[in-house]
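Let's practice the habit of predicting before peeking. Look at the sequence and jot down your guess about where helices and strands might fall. Then scroll down.
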Amino acid sequence: MLFFNYGVSSRYCKAIFGSIAALLLSILPAAAASDPPPLRTGVISGAGECGACHKEVLEKWKDSMHAQAVTDPVFQAAYMQAFLDSDGKAKHICLECHAPVSLTNGDTNLKEPVTREGITCHFCHSITATHPNGKRRFDIKVGTTLAGPRGNANTTYHSSVKSDLHRSADLCAACHEYEANGVKIMATWSEWKNSPQGAKGTVCQQCHMPLENSINQRGERISVFSHSLAGGHSIVQLRKGVVVNINTVERFSDRTVVNLELENAGAGHSLPTGIPTRKLVLYVQVTGADNRSQKKSVVYEKVIFNKKGQELVRDSDIMQGLGAVIAKDNRIAAGERRKEQVVFYGATPSEISVTAWVDYVYQPALLQNTEMRVEMTRAERSFGR
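Done guessing? Here is the structure:
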């Protein structure tokens, strides 16, 4: 109206007003379209909202197994089988750790996108206490305040509080410790407590969430704890875990004796840890100058039997809590140096080479597409000229 009062044309008025508006927008801080809404009490926000400010953290987390705790095809196959075998009861065992948001929103059918985010940001930073093997594994307070190791990130979207729990191995204990029928099925936290690392106070986060450089929402370089959460799925982590050395080779007319040592040099828990279907296999191979060879193996594993004395070989059976007896556990404890002697019988060639290596072995069931093709009918005719 001001421009029209001074006799300025409508077209010219719009041009001037548009220029001033553009100038103001360039000067004044305004909420971008991608800015997240402030957190709400009792409602878990999606990771994408956190990523509006914590972009690099979000990208690291998206590739982690925590982010894929629901969508991982290994979990989906085991969960589907456990669900069917238990008439749906498995959801109360499995989802508390794989889809913990369902504790808050009641979405045990995994319909909401935020539930399918697995161990997502707002949930993890709302944990106030953990209870390994308790009736309820977590105490959580979902609101506008987030708990973290520093507690110095107050913004218009949330406030922060420093949490000693988020610097403690107890945070991980809620899900990385699983007991059924008085038997420790998965005992990664207990193994850590009894390890040299536990005695020194080296916690899980120092290996699985090491500090790394990042950029905050103001464009400043800062150090943050890695949210890649690399574990047994990480080739780098696996290769840091165990070291094998060939100490001596004794040669006799009728046999060759190989003396080795395996050391759990890089893990603060037994190797392998986690679900008992994971194994380590030591292979030792002796090869003569004629390229003929012999190979032997030693398996390191935890073997679980059910109440009927049957070995549990499927993840789905273990997830249901059917384990009753630990029939074998020869895994390599944290800091342990295990001596092994492998004997090869037969005449010893004049020249030999000895090779030893360790494989990490896991053979889970997977859901996969399979083509079903059935010929229903066929017609054939011959024609001459």
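How did you do? The chain is about 25% helix and 25% strand.
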